[in-house]
Amino acid sequence: MTVAELARQEGISSATLYNWRKAARKRDVVLPSNSASSDKWTSEDKFRMVLETAPMSEAELSEYCRKHGVYPEQIEA
Q: Is the pTM value of this prediction over 0.70?
């Protein structure tokens, strides 16, 4: 889902969503930039996600993926 779509759906301005995403990145929260496609993530995003998920069980990984909007296969790749 694009930022514009989410903004319309939730009734929040796009600028607010972009600001929230920027603030989350400053706190080292993994948020892919423009796509959930892992080939578009920065090396830093990929590395951080792998480090965060390495010790997780399958259930924990599934929850993490739902929370961050990614698929386990993307992390595995």
A: no
